[in-house]
Amino acid sequence: MAKEEEYDKLPDKDAAKEFYAKYEPKEILGRGISSTVRRCIEKETGKEFAAKIIDLSNDDSSLEATRQEISILRIVAGHPYIIELQDVFESSTFIFLVFELCKHGELFDYLTSVVALSEKKTRYIMKQVFEGVHHIHSKGVVHRDLKPENILLDDNLNVKITDFGFAKKLENEELLHDLCGTPGYLAPETLKTNMFEDFPGYSFEVDIWACGVIMYTLLVGCPPFWHRKQMIMLRNIMDGKYSFTSPEWADISEAPKDLIRKLLVVDPKQRISVSEALRHEFFQAVHLWDQDIMSLKESLKKSSRRYSRISELTLKLQQSKFNPRRKFQMAILFVRAMIRIQRLRFTPEPLSLDTARIDPYRVKLLRKVVDGCAFRVYGHWVKKGEGQNRAALFENTPKTELKHIYVTNLSR
Ligand code: ADP
Ligand code: MG
Known about the structure:
With 412 residues, this protein is of the alpha+beta class. The chain folds into 4 domains: 99 residues, Phosphorylase Kinase, domain 1, CATH 3.30.200.20; 177 residues, Transferase(Phosphotransferase), domain 1, CATH 1.10.510.10; 44 residues, no CATH class; 59 residues, no CATH class. The protein contains 14 helices and 9 strands. Strands 1-2-3-5-4 form a 5-stranded antiparallel beta sheet. Strands 6-9 form a two-stranded antiparallel ribbon. A two-stranded antiparallel ribbon has the order 7-8. The longest helix is centred in the C-terminal third of the chain and has 27 residues. It binds adenosine-5'-diphosphate and magnesium ion. Adenosine-5'-diphosphate binds next to strand 1, strand 2, strand 3 and strand 5.
């Protein structure tokens, strides 16, 4: 995020003597509408933290909103995938929130640097996101602004859900009505609540919808709902109109698509729950990232067990005299193996020179080269037509302006 104004004037030292006595502020890590996040060092220990410095002078509502954010942060504290609030300093003009530092920054920046994530990495990240969301919901809190910018990565590339600025603690079956969040991640029921008088309101399920949008975006590097005209985008959200038709999806297996289909369900009552999502087939595969040796070891163990079963069976067959049942089992194993081998010939992408000439973007290898070049030149993905557009990820409208934009679009 913005680092260009590293030498910005720091808040008046007198306003927060305590903070400055304890911490040494360093460069800017990120910015919000009325906040700046800086790396800082605890003087006594030399340990690094991130300080979110909120300017109260512009806006009367900031104080109340920040107090609300602090109270929620305390409710959801103590989970490995939720950001930990270490310290709070409040002065009349500034509030300082000191958080654990996430050295690897936003998932958004990581995604930008790699364009899209493999299924394995998506599984690794989304499992943690769902576990974090499960914890947040178990405390009766709804986040309401889940997106890759608010998911940070720590030293071990583990997820830390942050920015509880819009989060709300719900009291018994309470429904929410306000329009807040970031356009591309808004759930249909959030929009409908604000459009139709008789719509009852929304609840926890909006976070599950946002997880669906995040997961889609991670896998292909562009959002499911995007249109040059924002009103059409909002309509597509309300109709749940998205597709897996772009070429990137051809290389992605069925399990993640199935999970996304169950997450991006328009009716919140029919939408998959967080626990169900965690039990989904997509998370049952041997998961995790390349550097995760434990999981790799486990996967090896599992496959060797499978081999040993097959060899046991063969051995038994050899030892025993003719046994029609075993022979039948063996025949099935043989047929299955043949089918697998035959499929292998078809799985790799056909490298046809014709396809490469007419539509190079369809060929995975060339697609990577094309995207890589576009990235180096433009800093973001420049892509086709009116539908999907990766550049949309860089156009996230600041959340407080959403209401204004929404109203303007509605009146068109
Ligand atoms: P806002 O409510 O203004 O969006 P956030 O809490 O999301 O504020 O922080 C803004 C940005 O600052 C984040 O998107 C991220 O880039 C950076 N940031 C926030 N907290 C941390 C942290 N603990 N470690 C590293 N970077 C952080
Ligand atoms: Mg944020």
